[in-house]
Amino acid sequence: MFRTYMWLTFSVSAWGSNFVFGKILVNDFSPAVLTSLRLLFIVLFLIVFVLSRQKLQKVSIRDWKWILMLGVVGVFINQLTFFKGLVTADSTSSALILATAPILTGFLGRFFERTIHITYAFWFFYCNHWYLLCSEQRRSGIPL
Are 78 and 22 in contact (CB under 8 A)? Predict the structure, then answer.
């Protein structure tokens, strides 16, 4: 159990430090270079991971086209806009904006596809969370 909590703590710390280190790095490197380097290291890690596995299914050519398209749209553009945003915004605002991405996905899914049903409990939790966050930041004097 302790090991699980340590991995969870590491994951949250790595995710949170992503914004701070990204803000530091955009002062010295362009967003395109940072995005390319980040994706290069991810691909190298995944190659080592895949080669260490014994039984994996073959991916068809048709599926590779979809994987490539999803990689460009879902990962490359996401990271590029993240680093471009860090050029002008501070790391706290960037973290708040990125943390709302699942909520925005839910809204878009609800309005465009009519597939996601948002419950009242979710709305209460979401509104209460933002109220507490905004009131805490007003008390501390840190701008949103």
Answer: no
